[in-house]
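User: Show me a protein chain along with its predicted structure.
Assistant: Here is one chain, sequence first, then structure tokens.
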Amino acid sequence: MLEKVNLKRVMIKEEYKQEAALLEERLGLLQQRVKQNKLSVLILFDGWGAAGKGSLISKLILNFDPRGFRVQSFVAADQAEQRRPLLWRYWNHIPAQGEIAVFDRSWYQDITTAQLESSLSKSELKRRIQSIKTMERQLSDDGTLLLKFFLHIDQKEQKKRFEKLEDNKNTAWRVTAQDWKRNKHYDEYYRVFDQVLTETNTDYAPWHIVGGHDRYSAVIDIYRTVADEIEAAIEQRVEKLAHPVVLPPQIASPEGFDLVSVPKLSQISLSKQIEPERYKEELKDAQDTLKKLHNKLYRKKIPVVIAYEGWDAAGKGGNIKRVAAALDPRGYEVIPIAAPDKNELAHHYLWRFWNRVPKTGHVAIFDRTWYGRVMVERIEGFCTDEAWHRAYREINEFEKELSDWGAVIVKFWIHIDSEEQLRRFNERQNTPSKQWKITEEDWRNRDKWDQYENAVNDMLQYTSTDFAPWHIIESQDKKFARVKALRVLISAIEDRLDRE
């Protein structure tokens, strides 16, 4: 791709002034339309050292009201960031609807310069490229406009700029030994850049390569591209809202994942119980085992993600409490998930879960999860049919990222029947100390039991993967359920430790 760029193009000053004035006014007006139409805009700047990223970003953002955009600069991941998945720190800075975010470098540094400077294996490089393409597709599908600029200069021009920076004591600090090394091995970096640009140049997130030798033409190229792409994205968004996609009721099975067969809820026997005297003994034994395993997890820096879903009043809270009791309080967090707030609704639905991914060696226990997308949001109409149909694949991709990072993923569906739920609801309603546990929403959800059961069966069918299978926990007897969940969790952790 890089060889197609004309680096000799020059724009005269008067022509630049005239065109820039028109585009600057256009960009300022477009920012207001971005806000009005709740469009999320993410602009990435990458390219050669000294190609002019900083000055070009400065020129671009002068056209915007500072209350509607932000600039985020990314350098190599620090020690804390290295304890999270590769894409975690980038997800944290994804713009909300109606906002513009500009990234000075991005996830591309993890697959370009990292190839030559971090000894990436071919398999890891391939995985990272796929992860990035997946992330960009997910953001694009959700309505985010992704604009990717690569600023290109040749070896001779880069050397000249480095020398000029070094000649000034106020800018000499900007040129490092690593910069000179990259210039010396320019051809190797050129090959890597060109390969990555080609592999990640997609319909939903194409690259815009800008010649950086002439500043005037570079500014105009960027201004015009940003303005044209924002206008087109707004028109597309308006059209999509006016004519939403209506999908057939049949769900397409997510491709590319090895699914594990899970029985339908109606096929699960709920007669399992545990004797009271055995319960205390087995509970203590399981908690003691889990406590020892937690120490090993911390020492080996293996993260654990536990996802709890289930019927209202099925006993999730008590189950979580028994798991948490076995863990070091400094090494776990219970994360209750309620309806998304205003800021969360303005982001991709996975954004708030990416933000809560644990550090290596730590345990995150989610009390309700990202599966709300294919249950309550599907049934209550809080998202489009297109969005929840798409979510099965997106969820599998999210969990695959966590698994590839090294996380143990354990997913529980806490199961009871309709009659038992009614009995527990009535008990809560008639017990003053438990009345806070029952709400009008619980009763409304109960009226839609059959709809929820169908949605859960779909969820189990399409998202039980070999790296993150579902475990149905029979909770008609809460004590049986607590011991079983602990045993399943212990088994998953031991399997992971054995692979170490």
